[in-house]
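Researcher: Re-running this chain for the archive, since the previous output was lost when a drive failed. Same request as before.
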Amino acid sequence: MSVIDAGELDTLWAEFRGVVNMTSHELSAWLRTAGGDPGRTHGRGVLAILRKRRVDLTAEDVRLMREVLATVRSATATGGAGAGMGERRYRLMSLGHDPLR
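Model: Regenerated structure tokens:
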């Protein structure tokens, strides 16, 4: 794994598990129905992370966790349930985050 200390990894793990609010079962079912959504590739990575223990994370897992956190935070910072909320919600759900929860 890349150079990341245990405290930083603990924080990242907790933040990731807080942002990814869908269970592995829910995400798996969603990814099967999401069709050609480009988020599916990342979604499969998120799904793999959800099925791991924190001590089994790889450098690639850490990179993806940081990317998912940044994407979800950016998308939810714009907020609002106006036009495009459905599309934004579906994109976020492909990363394991349902903004309606």
